[in-house]
Amino acid sequence: MEDYDYLFKIVLVGNAGVGKTCLVRRFTQGLFPPGQGATIGVDFMIKTVEIKGMKVKLQIWDTAGQERFRSITQSYYRSANALILTYDITCEDSFRCLPEWLREIEQYANNQVVTILVGNKTDLAERREVPVRRAEEFAEAQSMLYLETSAKESDNVEKLFLDLACELIREAQQNTLDNTDRAPVPGEGKPISYLSCCSVN
Ligand SMILES: Nc1nc2c(ncn2[C@@H]2O[C@H](COP(=O)(O)OP(=O)(O)OP(=O)(O)O)[C@@H](O)[C@H]2O)c(=O)[nH]1
């Protein structure tokens, strides 16, 4: 027996140094690690949360932002249910690279993937280089959700992962409904569980 109702795979992508590892560590372990080194390849963490009485297991994959790991990290996109596309609000460069990340997503992720744009490091407001409005417009144009966070101050980090989990549950339930509503095609087999629950012994 599985000990959860839903299992979702979430992958974080974005330039090196934007704070992907810190976001994951803050959410899964409740800490902001000092002197966090660059991620090598990919890292993996699990956290189970409870949403509306359901156990939701989140498999969180933290990918390296450095270009040299790109061929490894791309292979993790395919099976992702959600992608957290992260930039640093104090680093214009990390925002300017977003179209490049979107091309990667388009090429390697499945077309059902839920993508959220995250501007991290809001605690460094005095060093902000990317205005909120600009990021909002970019996210809207790309049909992405958008949120700003601070892994350091723990601002919006819990909200980021829980909102994403809620959205994934909503989509999963919608897909189940769509499949259940589908009229049976003549000759198409029915699942055994359906037949057995209707049989009279
Ligand atoms: N002030 C501030 N610093 C942050 C925040 N998040 C991360 N940092 C710092 O940014 C630097 C990079 O953080 P990481 O989490 O390693 O960044 P990353 O995106 O995982 O980097 P790669 O593994 O190289 O892709 C570290 O020095 C962190 O301490 C934040 O919310 N606020």
From TrEMBL:
Enzyme class: hydrolase
SMART domains: RAB, RAN, RAS, RHO
Subcellular localization, as worded in the UniProt entry: Autolysosome membrane; Cytoplasmic vesicle, Autophagosome membrane; Golgi apparatus, cis-Golgi network membrane; Golgi apparatus, trans-Golgi network membrane
Keyword Flavoprotein: no
Bilayer topology term: Lipid-anchor
Main function: The small GTPases Rab are key regulators of intracellular membrane trafficking, from the formation of transport vesicles to their fusion with membranes. Rabs cycle between an inactive GDP-bound form and an active GTP-bound form that is able to recruit to membranes different sets of downstream effectors directly responsible for vesicle formation, movement, tethering and fusion. RAB30 is required for maintaining the structural integrity of the Golgi apparatus, possibly by mediating interactions with cytoplasmic scaffolding proteins.
Protein name: Ras-related protein Rab-30
Cofactor(s) in the UniProt record: Mg(2+)
Reaction it catalyzes: GTP + H2O = GDP + phosphate + H(+)
Biological source species: Electrophorus electricus
EC number: 3.6.5.2
GO biological process assignments: Rab protein signal transduction
GO molecular function, one term: metal ion binding
Any one of the GO CC terms: autolysosome membrane
NCBIfam families: small_GTP (TIGR00231)
CDD domains hit by this protein: Rab30
Similarity comment: family membership: Belongs to the small GTPase superfamily. Rab family.
UniProt keyword terms in alphabetical order: Cytoplasm, Cytoplasmic vesicle, Golgi apparatus, GTP-binding, Hydrolase, Lipoprotein, Lysosome, Magnesium, Membrane, Metal-binding, Methylation, Nucleotide-binding, Prenylation
Gene: RAB30
Source organism, top-level taxon: Eukaryota
